[in-house]
Write a structure and sequence with these properties.
The chain is mainly alpha-helical. It is built from 4 helices and 2 strands, in the order αβαβαα.
Amino acid sequence: MGESPKRCVARTVTVKRNSDRFPSDFMFQLDDEEYAALRSQFATSNTGRGGRRYLPYAFTEHGAIMAATVLNSAKAIEMSVFVVRAFVQLREILATHQELAEKLDALERTVSTHDQAIAGLINAIRELTHTPPSRSRPIGFTADIHGDGQ
């Protein structure tokens, strides 16, 4: 089950009291659209029935670590370890995707140079297979009057 509303309020108050530890690149407030998407993911109750009055805050990686230093409950410590592990795993995934993107770029460059080489080969083959126009000789008997062979 979820936490009691009193604990959520206490945590929010603690973070607000330590606002100097949470600059804008550590924590930001969700807008209405983000909050609606978040609510739909967790199937929370309708608004207007004693729920949240203000839009919630979200922490960046550094903000989550800073929150762990401010909140000292056993649950906060457990969650801070979880968050750090999640961000480490996320970085590993991003690094893997970056390596894959670099390999794809290299492959694309190689294929591009191969395409140019293949196009050059095709043009050379076309030139070799293209029959030159034959010099037609007139029909019948012709005398070589000039002696030049034509």
